Amino acid sequence: MSSGAPGGPPYPRGPPAFAGPPPAGARPPFGGPPPFAGPPAFAAPPAGPHGSAPPGFRGPTPPSATSHPPPAFAQPPTGPPPGAQPPAAPAGFVPPNRPGARPPGPPFAGAPPVGPPPGVANGPLAGAPPPGPPPYGHPSPAAAAPSAFQQRPGPPPFGRPAGAPPGPPPVAGSAQPPPPFAARPPGSAPFLPPGPPPMGAGAQIPAFPPPQGAPPTGPPPAYGSAPSVPPPPFSSAPAPPPYGSQPPPPGYPPTAQHSPQFGAPASHPPPAPSFGAPPPFGAPPPQPPSPLGPPPTGAAATPPAMAQAAAAQALAEDLQSLAIGAGPGAGGADAVDYSALPRPAGVVVGGEDFAGGADGGEEALEGWGEGLVAGGLAEIEGNAHPRYFRMTCGAIPDSQSLRSRWHLPLGAVLQPLAPTPPGEEEVPVVNFGSSGIIRCRRCRTYVNPFVTFTDGGRRWRCNSCNLLNEVSHEYFCNLDSTGRRTDWHQRPELSRGSVEFVAPVEYMVRPPMPPTFFFLIDASVNNARSGVLQVISDAIRACLDSLPGDSRTRIGFLLFDSSLHFVSLKASLTQPHVLVSADIDDPFLPLPEDELLVNAHESRHVVEAFLDALPNLFATSTNVESAMGPALKAMSLLVSQLGGKVLLFQSTMPSLGAGRLRLRGDDPRLYGTDREHTVRCSEDAFYKSTAAEFSRAQICVDTFVFSSKYCDLASLGTLARYTGGQVYHYSGFHLANDGDKLRSQIVRNLTRETAWESVMRIRCSKGLKIATFHGHFFIRSSDLLAIPAADADKGYAVQISHEEAVLANQTMAYLQCALLYTSSCGERRIRVHTLAVPIVRDMAELYRRCDMGATATVLAKIALDKSLTSRLEECRQLIQNKTTLALREYRILTAGSAALSRTSGYGMPPPSPSNPYGPPQSHLHQPNLPQQRLVFPESLRLLPLYTLALCKSPALRGGFQEMGADARAAAAFELMVVSVGRTLRMLYPRLIRVDAMPAQCGVADESGIVTIPRAMPLATSSLDPQGAFLLDDSTGLTLWLGGALPAGTAAQIVGQDALNAPDINQVPFIPPPDSPLAARISAIVDALRSGDFPGGNGSRGGGEVCHQAVQLLRQGGSGELAFYHSFVEDRSATGMGYGEFVVHLARQVQVK
User: Fold this and answer.
1) If I label 104, which of 23, 609, 906, 922 is the partner at 20 to 30 A Cα–Cα?
2) Dist CA 67 CA 62 (whole Å)
3) What CA–CA distance (Å, rounded) separates 155 from 68?
4) β pairing state of 1037-1041 and 828-840
């Protein structure tokens, strides 16, 4: 499994090669100051009454003594005639951008509130001067000395002839831009938003920038940490606010020595002159009355230009954009409208606070945060449902050259055994009997709805390789007038995209084996005293009647500490016998196999007797050693003949025998070096070689780890990675909080639909191939995946590449996933999912058909696989490079559209009668033009958010100090196997308020569906100290109680006993029986666990995929810092905030 290299060149780092002034005509580096002190001239505003500027327009800044004339492309002046007398200014008026004047903005109305109120973007306080360089017209130290740029002649400023004195000040009473937010009403208490404790000096930015021209100190900021800047030399400067209480102000303008890194908090370049307040999100800015006329003559009317304009015009319906402020101080998160930032469906900033029916049904197919599945493949008759086979893009490029311009992953997410929601038909089973399964002779594609029949039905043409195949006598049927078989609607293989064939004897290497469950339990002191053995015993006993396989199921137990404890469960016994073997160097079986691995039905009474004795069997043990490696070898001797599933319960690091591990993951010296990735890989080759042997023997290992100390989960999880298993991690297992979750996960693991002895292959039509695979499996050959035990909860991902330069004479590409397995009832079957994907020659069609949910899932798996061979910084850089290149390609694609200049607000000159298509292509990308919008297609509106969230996810964020090695490995193992819906919820959790819900929330309707409150943005400004909030990240639930929450309300939610506990974190959530509010919250918790709510993740009756324990948390209590790590929209020590990242991304998109 490998990942591709970054899709574009790395971001420039380090100082430039020259120290003197740049040559004439050279543009400044990205983020650097403009080559002249004064602002560039821009298009004149539309004239108002009597030739004056319209109300609310802030014209160009009056030039100062050192200002520079506007560039040569300025338009003719449209202001008042020379010599016109300006209106008198009101008393006390101070013209803006003059010496001694404050920046434009509202007057100070009193002390601003401390911190932003809920729902308001992080930014400077109302009335505070925006940080940044001096206003335009005031010389800076760097621009005081004359240069070649200041000697260039140019046309006079707009609206007056050369040599005229500066123009009049703005008219009194003209519209002024609104303040960032309203001032606090008099007499009200200041709002104190909650937040985590301060992160230290490394996460703070001084309130004032250093003087221009002063050399920066220290190395450039590295990825994942906020730039550390020395405090300003002003004694009156306020101290930086604590994390979460008030966002840090924007930093100083970056220089060549301090270029912003991908993912790090961005510095801000000098602001460009403002054209006034930007239009609302998605609304077109006002345009002068110059409607589109006939196309221009000359070069602009060439066929390529016309074709490009037409193609870009076709994107107008799908195009969206985000305004980026261009005025002074608009360099950080305050440069964008907080409420206009794209967020998942169902997340609202204010407004309604309950989930209505608009968020349910197919609008949220995979549940949280993604909306309708894009691509349109589900509308093609005969395609498999997206829950089984989901493409990242609903189209395939027709050539390698077009594929090279598509910088996002081209692949698919597969979940072959995904559960079917109630009310839908199960996957049909087809038995061809003695005639055998119908397949292509050459490419081995299974018959599917896209094959065509010819020659009166006697032959059929393969849709993948076009080979004509003979139709057997038993399968023959006449064709109708359209060329289709008359029985096509009666045959599932010809009408359904998902079907299951009963495999004949030739598909069996050996007779189907019975389902086998073997429990390998660490019996050292940690498991014995923590209550883990009791939970294991209760869970296994609860599902003995529901184990798959009925009377064929086999079961066995082996316990270990410093010795091996074999358990005899022979049916003739009345009590189990335990035999202890101290030989761990060369393990052997002390009893025959049929006594250690028994039929669960025949030995039921002995198994129950052992489970009853298990919790007390090691109650007095003080053994701290763990001989896990020898136990694995002994288990292999017992299970290798049948294969099956092994549940390994481990509580400490293996310390004896083969596979013994040492402490290595807590060494901070490895992080940031070329050997950093070794911490995330197995230390001992024993684990990978053992996993390969288990895969050949059809043994799957699911690993449960309980440890509050470092136990090298990266090595222990290798067994699950290569055998198709899963890793469950409990850091510091606590029986009261984690017991129900462990019990539920064991039951789900034992009773879910499982495909035994399975292998999977994905076939593509001619000209395509599967390049890489992502997930938990063992690659047996170039395209054959060995999965000893596949189940309904696991997902896999693949990437597709081109084998041929051009897919000639093809309009559709076909992909087919085939899973050959043994069912629990002992029948060999083949589950087949088929997709037909259009082949397109237009890049715009690829953007229209992109599926954001599947794309984010494949991006996550690519980054996780890369983290096994590279540093985390390189993984984050890879993701952001792909995002930047994808949005840059879309910007170039749509740049020539006249509709774009009307709707996207790039800050370009508008169309004119002489040039109705706007400026030429080269004019759109001149660096001196202000670019005020980040343009993106509707299908990728959440790409920046999921990119930022993935970089801040537990598996990829920060370094040694931000995330422990075991916790990072556990998050990576979980993210590698979960479905699309759970992946998106792990990246962007759901935050809802539960103390003040509408009456319909938390109550089930007639169909049993519970309505939950609408989600809120993941920012600390969404929290209210007087409220209670529930956070759902798909692996756990956190119930956060504000510090100012009324005591009566808190007692209604969690009970008075929980409030009186010394540490509420260790108290389980038990709703008070007499509290209606607690009953509604409990119903919401149950709905989130099962997905039974409008827009849920679709399990609905299929059982809980992951039982989420409720963690109680009080504001200011222990464990709160981990809670705030989920607020990905906030700026933190591990990366920028959402608004700041969008600004940073917009600038990167504009850099060539």
Assistant:
1) 906
2) 9
3) 10
4) unpaired
The two three-digit tokens of residue 132, written as one number: 């940044």
What gap in Å lies between CA 121 and CA 284, rounded to an integer?
22
Phi/psi at 182 (nearest 5 deg)? -65, 150
Yes or no: say if 580 and 564 are a contact pair by the CB < 8 Å rule.
Answer: yes
H or E stretch including 1078?
A: helix 1076-1090
CA dist list (Å): 890 to 317, 385, 396 = 14, 29, 17
Average the pLDDT over each of 46-55, 431-440, 446-455, 1060-1069 and give the range with the smallest value. Answer: 46-55
Q: Any alpha helices (H) in 287-350, and if so which ranges?
A: 303-313
What CA dihedral angle connects 8, 10, 15 and 16, to 10 degrees? Answer: -30
Q: How far is the C-alpha of 431 from the C-alpha of 511, rounded, in Å?
A: 18
Is pLDDT above 80 for 749? Answer: yes
Percent of the chain with pLDDT over 70: 64
Ramachandran angles phi, psi of 728, nearest 5°: -115, 125
The answer on pLDDT for 515 being more than 80 is yes
Q: Do 128 and 241 touch, CB atoms closer than 8 A?
A: no
Q: Name the burial class of residue 165, with classes exposed (0-12), middle (13-18) and buried (19+) by CB atoms within 10 angstroms of its CB.
A: exposed
Residue whose token pair is 């009963």: 502
Comparing CA positions, the residue from 748, 740, 706, 731 lying closest to residue 1068 is 740
pLDDT above 70: residue 14: no
Interatomic CA distance for residues 444 and 763, integer angstroms: 9
pTM: 0.72
| Residues shown for the chain | 1152
3-state helix, strand, coil in the chain (%, to 5): 25, 15, 60
Q: How far apart are the first and last CA of the chain?
A: 32
Cβ atoms of 127 and 179 closer than 8 Å: yes
Q: How far is CA 340 from CA 371, 645, 889, 907, 951, in A?
A: 18, 49, 23, 19, 22
Contacts 24+ apart (CB under 8 A), 771-774: 771/798, 771/799, 771/800, 771/801, 772/1, 772/2, 772/3, 772/4, 772/798, 772/799, 772/865, 773/1, 773/797, 773/798, 774/1, 774/798, 774/799, 774/858, 774/861, 774/862, 774/864, 774/865, 774/976
pLDDT at 75 over 70: no
The secondary structure element, H or E, covering residue 610 is helix 604-617
Q: What is the pLDDT of residues 113-158, one digit of tens each?
A: 333 344 434 433 333 344 444 443 344 444 344 433 334 444 444 4
Residue 68 pLDDT more than 90?
no
| pLDDT (mean) for 914-942 | 54
Would you say residue 111 has pLDDT above 80? no
Q: How many helices (H) and strands (E) does the chain have?
A: 25, 29
pLDDT of residue 1052: 94
- Which 3 state secondary structure label does DSSP give 63? coil
Q: What single letter denotes the amino acid at residue 731?
A: S
Task: Identify whether the C-beta of residue 410 lies closer than 8 Å to the C-beta of residue 800.
Answer: yes
Close Cβ partners of 148 (under 8 Å, ≥ 6 residues apart):
21, 24
The owner of tokens 């035994």 is 756
Task: Flag whether pLDDT at 511 surpasses 80.
Answer: yes
What's at 274, amino acid-wise? S
Instruction: Give the separation between CA 224 and CA 222, rounded to whole angstroms.
Output: 6
Is 813 in contact with 839 (CB distance < 8 Å)?
Answer: yes
CA–CA separation, 457 and 438 (whole Å): 14
Q: Which residue has the tokens 């200014």?
A: 89
DSSP assignment string, 350-398: SS--S--GGG-GGGGTT-TTT-SPTTSGGGSTTPPPTTTEEESBSSEES
Give the amino acid at 813.
A
